[in-house]
Amino acid sequence: MLTLNTYTQLYRDALLNDVIPFWQTHSIDRQAGGFFTCLDQKGNVYDTDKFIWLQARQVWTFSMLYNRVSDTSPEQSSDWLAVAKHGASFLKKHGRADDGSWYFSLTRDGRPLVQPYNIFSDCFATMAFGQLSVATGNDEYAHIAQSTFEQILRRRDNPKGKWNKAIAATRPLKNFALPMILCNLSLEIEHLLDRQLVDQTIDECIHEVMNVFYDPDLGLIRENVTPDGQFSDSYEGRLLNPGHAIEAMWFIMDLATRRNDQALLEKAVRITLATLDYAWDTKYGGLFYFMDSQGHPTQQLEWDQKLWWVHVETLVTVLKGYQKTGNQACWDWFERLHTYTWQHFPDPAHGEWYGYLNRRGEVFLPLKGGKWKGCFHVPRGLYQCWQTLKSLDLNQSATTDRPEGDLHGYFSSPPAS
Amino acid sequence: MLTLNTYTQLYRDALLNDVIPFWQTHSIDRQAGGFFTCLDQKGNVYDTDKFIWLQARQVWTFSMLYNRVSDTSPEQSSDWLAVAKHGASFLKKHGRADDGSWYFSLTRDGRPLVQPYNIFSDCFATMAFGQLSVATGNDEYAHIAQSTFEQILRRRDNPKGKWNKAIAATRPLKNFALPMILCNLSLEIEHLLDRQLVDQTIDECIHEVMNVFYDPDLGLIRENVTPDGQFSDSYEGRLLNPGHAIEAMWFIMDLATRRNDQALLEKAVRITLATLDYAWDTKYGGLFYFMDSQGHPTQQLEWDQKLWWVHVETLVTVLKGYQKTGNQACWDWFERLHTYTWQHFPDPAHGEWYGYLNRRGEVFLPLKGGKWKGCFHVPRGLYQCWQTLKSLDLNQSATTDRPEGDLHGYFSSPPAS
Question: Are the C-beta atoms of B403 and A332 separated by less than 8 Å?
Answer without folding.
Answer: no
